[in-house]
Protein backbone atom coordinates (compact mmCIF):
# COMPACT_ATOMS: atom_id res chain seq x y z
CA UNK A 1 0.00 0.00 0.00
CA UNK A 2 1.25 3.46 -0.88
CA UNK A 3 0.00 6.69 0.64
CA UNK A 4 -0.92 9.36 -1.89
CA UNK A 5 0.56 12.32 -0.08
CA UNK A 6 -1.25 15.59 -0.77
CA UNK A 7 1.58 17.59 0.78
CA UNK A 8 4.13 16.27 -1.70
CA UNK A 9 1.87 16.40 -4.77
CA UNK A 10 0.48 19.87 -4.00
CA UNK A 11 3.96 21.23 -3.31
CA UNK A 12 5.08 20.09 -6.74
CA UNK A 13 2.13 21.94 -8.38
CA UNK A 14 2.73 25.01 -6.22
CA UNK A 15 6.43 25.11 -7.14
CA UNK A 16 5.56 25.13 -10.85
CA UNK A 17 3.01 27.91 -10.29
CA UNK A 18 5.45 29.97 -8.22
CA UNK A 19 8.05 29.82 -10.98
CA UNK A 20 5.57 30.80 -13.63
CA UNK A 21 4.32 33.77 -11.59
CA UNK A 22 7.89 34.92 -10.95
CA UNK A 23 8.58 34.90 -14.69
CA UNK A 24 5.39 36.81 -15.49
CA UNK A 25 6.07 39.44 -12.84
CA UNK A 26 9.71 39.74 -13.96
CA UNK A 27 8.37 40.42 -17.48
CA UNK A 28 6.48 43.43 -16.10
CA UNK A 29 3.01 41.94 -15.61
CA UNK A 30 0.95 42.31 -12.45
CA UNK A 31 0.44 39.24 -10.24
CA UNK A 32 -2.66 37.04 -10.66
CA UNK A 33 -5.43 38.10 -8.28
CA UNK A 34 -8.04 35.87 -6.62
CA UNK A 35 -11.07 37.30 -4.81
CA UNK A 36 -12.68 35.11 -2.15
CA UNK A 37 -16.08 35.91 -0.70
CA UNK A 38 -16.96 34.45 2.69
CA UNK A 39 -20.49 34.88 4.00
CA UNK A 40 -21.03 34.34 7.74
CA UNK A 41 -18.61 32.55 10.03
CA UNK A 42 -18.97 28.82 9.50
CA UNK A 43 -15.86 27.37 11.17
CA UNK A 44 -14.92 24.97 8.37
CA UNK A 45 -15.45 27.61 5.66
CA UNK A 46 -13.27 30.06 7.63
CA UNK A 47 -10.48 27.47 7.69
CA UNK A 48 -10.75 26.68 3.97
CA UNK A 49 -10.80 30.32 2.90
CA UNK A 50 -7.89 31.20 5.20
CA UNK A 51 -5.93 28.37 3.63
CA UNK A 52 -6.74 29.57 0.10
CA UNK A 53 -5.60 33.11 0.97
CA UNK A 54 -2.38 31.79 2.56
CA UNK A 55 -1.61 29.65 -0.48
CA UNK A 56 -2.08 32.66 -2.78
CA UNK A 57 0.57 34.55 -0.83
CA UNK A 58 2.93 31.55 -0.92
CA UNK A 59 2.90 31.34 -4.71
CA UNK A 60 2.95 35.07 -5.35
CA UNK A 61 -0.73 35.66 -6.17
CA UNK A 62 -2.55 38.66 -4.85
CA UNK A 63 -5.77 37.87 -2.99
CA UNK A 64 -8.67 39.83 -1.60
CA UNK A 65 -10.95 38.38 1.05
CA UNK A 66 -14.40 39.91 1.24
CA UNK A 67 -16.27 39.01 4.41
CA UNK A 68 -20.01 39.53 4.54
CA UNK A 69 -22.34 39.12 7.47
CA UNK A 70 -24.49 35.95 7.57
CA UNK A 71 -27.56 38.19 7.36
CA UNK A 72 -26.42 39.90 4.13
CA UNK A 73 -29.21 40.09 1.55
CA UNK A 74 -28.98 38.03 -1.61
CA UNK A 75 -29.04 41.23 -3.68
CA UNK A 76 -26.13 42.70 -1.75
CA UNK A 77 -24.07 39.55 -2.34
CA UNK A 78 -24.99 39.55 -6.04
CA UNK A 79 -23.93 43.21 -6.27
CA UNK A 80 -20.61 42.39 -4.63
CA UNK A 81 -20.07 39.71 -7.27
CA UNK A 82 -21.06 42.09 -10.08
CA UNK A 83 -18.46 44.54 -8.77
CA UNK A 84 -15.77 41.83 -8.86
CA UNK A 85 -16.86 40.78 -12.36
CA UNK A 86 -16.33 44.35 -13.57
CA UNK A 87 -12.96 44.79 -11.83
CA UNK A 88 -10.15 44.28 -14.36
CA UNK A 89 -7.67 43.64 -11.56
CA UNK A 90 -9.51 40.53 -10.39
CA UNK A 91 -8.87 37.32 -12.35
CA UNK A 92 -10.74 34.72 -10.31
CA UNK A 93 -13.76 34.84 -8.02
CA UNK A 94 -14.84 32.23 -5.52
CA UNK A 95 -17.79 32.38 -3.19
CA UNK A 96 -17.26 29.86 -0.43
CA UNK A 97 -20.14 27.36 -0.10
CA UNK A 98 -22.39 26.58 1.68
CA UNK A 99 -24.28 29.87 1.85
CA UNK A 100 -26.94 30.82 4.40
CA UNK A 101 -30.36 29.33 3.60
CA UNK A 102 -31.94 32.63 2.47
CA UNK A 103 -29.46 32.93 -0.42
CA UNK A 104 -29.87 30.95 -3.65
CA UNK A 105 -26.60 29.17 -4.45
CA UNK A 106 -27.48 28.63 -8.12
CA UNK A 107 -28.23 32.35 -8.51
CA UNK A 108 -24.92 33.28 -6.89
CA UNK A 109 -22.98 30.83 -9.04
CA UNK A 110 -24.63 32.06 -12.25
CA UNK A 111 -23.84 35.67 -11.37
CA UNK A 112 -20.09 35.00 -11.31
CA UNK A 113 -18.65 35.78 -14.74
CA UNK A 114 -17.82 32.49 -16.51
CA UNK A 115 -14.39 33.97 -17.38
CA UNK A 116 -13.61 34.33 -13.65
CA UNK A 117 -15.31 31.12 -12.46
CA UNK A 118 -12.18 29.49 -11.01
CA UNK A 119 -14.34 27.12 -8.92
CA UNK A 120 -15.76 25.69 -12.16
CA UNK A 121 -19.32 25.69 -10.79
CA UNK A 122 -20.95 27.98 -13.39
CA UNK A 123 -23.32 26.15 -15.79
CA UNK A 124 -21.11 27.27 -18.70
CA UNK A 125 -18.05 25.67 -17.07
CA UNK A 126 -19.98 22.48 -16.28
CA UNK A 127 -21.40 22.30 -19.81
CA UNK A 128 -17.93 22.66 -21.29
CA UNK A 129 -16.60 19.96 -18.94
CA UNK A 130 -19.32 17.55 -20.03
CA UNK A 131 -18.50 18.22 -23.68
CA UNK A 132 -14.75 17.73 -23.14
CA UNK A 133 -13.95 21.37 -23.96
CA UNK A 134 -11.28 23.43 -22.23
CA UNK A 135 -12.77 24.82 -19.03
CA UNK A 136 -12.28 25.52 -15.34
CA UNK A 137 -12.50 22.11 -13.66
CA UNK A 138 -13.99 22.19 -10.13
CA UNK A 139 -11.03 22.37 -7.76
CA UNK A 140 -11.46 19.11 -5.83
CA UNK A 141 -11.92 16.77 -8.82
CA UNK A 142 -9.15 18.72 -10.58
CA UNK A 143 -6.91 18.21 -7.54
CA UNK A 144 -7.64 14.47 -7.57
CA UNK A 145 -6.67 14.29 -11.26
CA UNK A 146 -3.44 16.16 -10.44
CA UNK A 147 -2.78 13.64 -7.66
CA UNK A 148 -3.27 10.68 -10.04
CA UNK A 149 -0.98 12.42 -12.52
CA UNK A 150 1.70 13.15 -9.89
CA UNK A 151 1.84 9.49 -8.83
CA UNK A 152 1.40 8.32 -12.46
CA UNK A 153 -1.46 5.99 -11.56
CA UNK A 154 -2.92 4.40 -14.70
CA UNK A 155 -6.71 4.66 -14.90
CA UNK A 156 -7.50 3.51 -18.46
CA UNK A 157 -10.04 0.68 -18.55
CA UNK A 158 -10.52 0.64 -14.78
CA UNK A 159 -13.88 0.59 -13.07
CA UNK A 160 -14.23 3.72 -10.94
CA UNK A 161 -16.95 3.89 -8.30
CA UNK A 162 -17.77 7.44 -7.19
CA UNK A 163 -19.83 7.71 -4.01
CA UNK A 164 -21.70 11.01 -3.94
CA UNK A 165 -23.27 13.08 -6.72
CA UNK A 166 -22.66 16.66 -5.56
CA UNK A 167 -21.99 19.43 -8.07
CA UNK A 168 -18.77 20.19 -6.20
CA UNK A 169 -17.17 16.74 -6.30
CA UNK A 170 -19.07 13.57 -7.23
CA UNK A 171 -20.67 14.55 -10.51
CA UNK A 172 -17.71 16.40 -12.06
CA UNK A 173 -15.42 13.61 -10.81
CA UNK A 174 -17.51 11.02 -12.63
CA UNK A 175 -17.31 13.05 -15.83
CA UNK A 176 -13.53 13.47 -15.61
CA UNK A 177 -12.85 9.80 -14.90
CA UNK A 178 -15.01 8.74 -17.85
CA UNK A 179 -13.54 11.33 -20.26
CA UNK A 180 -11.00 10.52 -22.93
CA UNK A 181 -7.74 11.85 -21.47
CA UNK A 182 -4.61 10.38 -19.87
CA UNK A 183 -6.07 9.99 -16.36
CA UNK A 184 -9.61 9.18 -17.49
CA UNK A 185 -11.00 6.43 -19.74
CA UNK A 186 -12.60 4.63 -16.79
CA UNK A 187 -15.94 2.90 -16.71
CA UNK A 188 -17.72 4.91 -14.03
CA UNK A 189 -20.49 4.05 -11.61
CA UNK A 190 -21.91 6.88 -9.54
CA UNK A 191 -23.56 5.86 -6.27
CA UNK A 192 -25.82 7.87 -3.99
CA UNK A 193 -28.33 7.55 -1.17
CA UNK A 194 -30.77 5.55 -3.36
CA UNK A 195 -28.23 2.99 -4.59
CA UNK A 196 -29.27 -0.53 -3.49
CA UNK A 197 -26.46 -2.58 -1.94
CA UNK A 198 -23.90 0.16 -2.22
CA UNK A 199 -21.28 -2.05 -0.55
CA UNK A 200 -21.55 -4.62 -3.36
CA UNK A 201 -21.17 -1.88 -5.98
CA UNK A 202 -18.10 -0.51 -4.17
CA UNK A 203 -16.50 -3.95 -4.12
CA UNK A 204 -16.44 -3.82 -7.93
CA UNK A 205 -14.38 -0.64 -7.94
CA UNK A 206 -10.75 -0.65 -9.03
CA UNK A 207 -10.89 2.99 -8.00
CA UNK A 208 -13.17 4.29 -5.23
CA UNK A 209 -13.78 8.00 -4.76
CA UNK A 210 -15.61 8.58 -1.48
CA UNK A 211 -17.29 11.99 -1.54
CA UNK A 212 -20.48 11.69 0.48
CA UNK A 213 -19.51 13.51 3.67
CA UNK A 214 -20.15 10.66 6.12
CA UNK A 215 -17.19 9.99 8.42
CA UNK A 216 -15.61 6.53 8.04
CA UNK A 217 -18.45 5.30 5.79
CA UNK A 218 -16.24 3.12 3.58
CA UNK A 219 -15.15 0.06 5.51
CA UNK A 220 -12.76 -2.74 4.52
CA UNK A 221 -15.58 -5.13 3.53
CA UNK A 222 -16.63 -2.62 0.82
CA UNK A 223 -13.20 -2.54 -0.83
CA UNK A 224 -11.65 -4.94 -3.31
CA UNK A 225 -8.03 -6.04 -2.71
CA UNK A 226 -5.65 -3.66 -4.47
CA UNK A 227 -8.20 -0.85 -5.01
CA UNK A 228 -7.12 2.77 -5.32
CA UNK A 229 -9.01 4.68 -2.63
CA UNK A 230 -9.50 8.44 -2.80
CA UNK A 231 -11.03 9.99 0.31
CA UNK A 232 -12.67 13.37 -0.22
CA UNK A 233 -14.40 13.61 3.18
CA UNK A 234 -13.41 16.29 5.68
CA UNK A 235 -15.93 16.24 8.51
CA UNK A 236 -15.35 17.76 11.92
CA UNK A 237 -16.21 15.16 14.56
CA UNK A 238 -16.48 16.30 18.17
CA UNK A 239 -13.73 14.93 20.36
CA UNK A 240 -13.18 16.32 23.86
CA UNK A 241 -9.63 14.93 23.92
CA UNK A 242 -8.60 16.95 20.83
CA UNK A 243 -7.05 20.41 21.31
CA UNK A 244 -9.69 22.15 19.19
CA UNK A 245 -12.55 20.00 20.52
CA UNK A 246 -12.91 18.14 17.20
CA UNK A 247 -10.99 15.89 14.83
CA UNK A 248 -11.11 15.83 11.06
CA UNK A 249 -12.44 12.54 9.71
CA UNK A 250 -12.52 11.31 6.14
CA UNK A 251 -15.26 9.24 4.47
CA UNK A 252 -13.02 6.15 4.65
CA UNK A 253 -12.15 4.03 7.71
CA UNK A 254 -8.49 4.59 6.99
CA UNK A 255 -6.71 1.97 9.11
CA UNK A 256 -8.77 -1.01 7.95
CA UNK A 257 -9.10 0.06 4.30
CA UNK A 258 -5.37 0.87 4.04
CA UNK A 259 -4.63 -2.83 4.58
CA UNK A 260 -6.50 -3.73 1.38
CA UNK A 261 -5.82 -0.74 -0.87
CA UNK A 262 -2.92 -0.39 -3.31
CA UNK A 263 -3.01 3.41 -2.94
CA UNK A 264 -4.93 5.52 -0.44
CA UNK A 265 -5.21 9.23 0.38
CA UNK A 266 -5.02 10.21 4.06
CA UNK A 267 -7.29 12.76 5.78
CA UNK A 268 -5.99 15.29 6.54
CA UNK A 269 -3.01 15.60 4.19
CA UNK A 270 -4.60 14.15 1.07
CA UNK A 271 -7.23 15.54 -1.29
CA UNK A 272 -7.80 18.77 0.71
CA UNK A 273 -4.37 20.12 -0.20
CA UNK A 274 -4.87 19.15 -3.85
CA UNK A 275 -8.12 21.14 -3.97
CA UNK A 276 -6.16 24.29 -3.33
CA UNK A 277 -3.62 23.34 -6.00
CA UNK A 278 -6.50 22.94 -8.50
CA UNK A 279 -7.95 26.31 -7.57
CA UNK A 280 -4.58 28.02 -7.96
CA UNK A 281 -4.05 26.46 -11.39
CA UNK A 282 -7.46 27.68 -12.52
CA UNK A 283 -6.68 31.18 -11.26
CA UNK A 284 -3.44 31.30 -13.23
CA UNK A 285 -5.31 30.19 -16.38
CA UNK A 286 -7.96 32.90 -15.87
CA UNK A 287 -5.18 35.47 -15.42
CA UNK A 288 -3.21 34.35 -18.49
CA UNK A 289 -6.29 34.77 -20.64
CA UNK A 290 -6.36 38.47 -19.71
CA UNK A 291 -2.85 38.87 -21.16
CA UNK A 292 -3.92 37.79 -24.63
N1 LIG B 1 -17.24 24.37 -0.31
C1 LIG B 1 -16.72 23.14 -0.30
N2 LIG B 1 -15.84 22.98 -1.32
C2 LIG B 1 -15.81 24.16 -1.98
C3 LIG B 1 -15.10 24.60 -3.12
O1 LIG B 1 -14.29 23.89 -3.75
N3 LIG B 1 -15.34 25.88 -3.50
C4 LIG B 1 -16.22 26.68 -2.84
N4 LIG B 1 -16.41 27.92 -3.31
N5 LIG B 1 -16.91 26.28 -1.79
C5 LIG B 1 -16.71 25.02 -1.36
TrEMBL record:
GO terms for biological process: L-histidine biosynthetic process; methionine biosynthetic process; purine nucleotide biosynthetic process; tetrahydrofolate interconversion. One of its GO terms (molecular function) is methylenetetrahydrofolate dehydrogenase (NADP+) activity. Keywords: Amino-acid biosynthesis, Histidine biosynthesis, Hydrolase, Methionine biosynthesis, Multifunctional enzyme, NADP, One-carbon metabolism, Oxidoreductase, Purine biosynthesis. Residues 138-289 form the Tetrahydrofolate dehydrogenase/cyclohydrolase NAD(P)-binding domain. Residues 4-119 form the Tetrahydrofolate dehydrogenase/cyclohydrolase catalytic domain. It catalyses: (6R)-5,10-methylene-5,6,7,8-tetrahydrofolate + NADP(+) = (6R)-5,10-methenyltetrahydrofolate + NADPH; (6R)-5,10-methenyltetrahydrofolate + H2O = (6R)-10-formyltetrahydrofolate + H(+). Pathway: One-carbon metabolism; tetrahydrofolate interconversion. Its EC number is 1.5.1.5, 3.5.4.9. NADP(+) binds at residues 164-166, 234. Homodimer. Catalyzes the oxidation of 5,10-methylenetetrahydrofolate to 5,10-methenyltetrahydrofolate and then the hydrolysis of 5,10-methenyltetrahydrofolate to 10-formyltetrahydrofolate. This is Bifunctional protein FolD. The lineage of its organism: Bacteria, Pseudomonadati, Bacteroidota, Chitinophagia, Chitinophagales.
Amino acid sequence: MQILDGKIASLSVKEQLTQEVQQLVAAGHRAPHLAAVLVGNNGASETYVASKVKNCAEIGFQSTLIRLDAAVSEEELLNTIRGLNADNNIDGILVQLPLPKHISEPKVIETISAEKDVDGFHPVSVGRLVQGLETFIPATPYGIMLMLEHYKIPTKGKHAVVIGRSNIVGRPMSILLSSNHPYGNCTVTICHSHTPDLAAVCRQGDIIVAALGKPEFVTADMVKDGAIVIDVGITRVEDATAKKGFRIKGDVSFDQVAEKASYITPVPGGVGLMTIAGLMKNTLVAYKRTLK
